Amino acid sequence: MEDGLTLLVLAGGESERMGRSKAFLKVDGREMIRYVIDRLTPLTSDLIISCKAGRERLEGIYPGARIAVDKSERDGPLVGLMSSLPLVENEYVGVVPCDSPKVRKELIVSLLNRARNNSAAIPRWPNGYIEPLVAVYRAEELEKAVNSVWERGEMKLSKVIERLEDVVFVPTDELKEVDKGLESFVNVNTPEDFEKHLL
């Protein structure tokens, strides 16, 4: 167990490209969200799942989790963060999407260690692209930044990150030490992705 860490899984809603909720896609009888959570729950007993629908089903799968239902009509990860962050009780929150079924707990631990005493630790690829949805944040700072952006009617996560005071951008090459193939960043967005990465 990692001290001071809450795990927040963004389950969202219907996926246009997938044609249905990605969280509940089944492989070998297990929902995809199980692949994510089962890999990471050894890190913390404090689990929050953000969703637009399927609360009862999620409660049946993970009765110990707190379920935050998105109430806004807006779409995007900021909706899930707005719903969920008020429930976070620990200093740090590890944010992961439900469609990254190969995420490694060692990578989250590495990010947590880098986030301590900072606003966040966010992976960054050599081309400058960042992975803000597989990252660790100081929860209070993230919540304030999300609220600030939300009040302005903006929905871009990049605007949230701009408002964080001290972000550590972690080169993905360094994270190969704990995830050689960087599979933690594989997203299952389409039926083709599903067949490639899970079947």
From TrEMBL:
Q: What's written under domain? A: The N-terminal domain determines nucleotide recognition and specific binding, while the C-terminal domain determines the specific binding to the target protein.
**What's this protein's name?**
Probable molybdenum cofactor guanylyltransferase
| Record: residues binding GTP | L10, A11, G12, K22, D70, D99
Q: From the UniProt record, list the reaction(s) this protein catalyses.
A: Mo-molybdopterin + GTP + H(+) = Mo-molybdopterin guanine dinucleotide + diphosphate
Please provide the record's keywords in A-Z order. Answer: Cytoplasm, GTP-binding, Magnesium, Metal-binding, Molybdenum cofactor biosynthesis, Nucleotide-binding, Transferase
Q: Which HAMAP family match?
A: MobA (MF_00316)
Sorted alphabetically, which PANTHER family does this protein's record hold?
MOLYBDENUM COFACTOR GUANYLYLTRANSFERASE
Q: Which InterPro entries match?
A: MobA-like_NTP_Trfase (IPR025877), Molybde_CF_guanTrfase (IPR013482), Nucleotide-diphossugar_trans (IPR029044)
- Domain called MobA-like NTP transferase: residue spans: 8-165
Please state which protein family the record places this protein in. Answer: Belongs to the MobA family.
Write the Enzyme Commission number(s) for this entry: 2.7.7.77
BP GO annotations:
Mo-molybdopterin cofactor biosynthetic process
Give residues annotated as binding Mg(2+).
Answer: D99
- Tell me where in or outside the cell this protein is found: Cytoplasm
Q: What is this protein's function per UniProt?
A: Transfers a GMP moiety from GTP to Mo-molybdopterin (Mo-MPT) cofactor (Moco or molybdenum cofactor) to form Mo-molybdopterin guanine dinucleotide (Mo-MGD) cofactor.
- The protein's required cofactors: Mg(2+)
Q: Which GO terms describe its cellular component?
A: cytoplasm
GO molecular function annotations of the record: GTP binding; metal ion binding; molybdenum cofactor guanylyltransferase activity
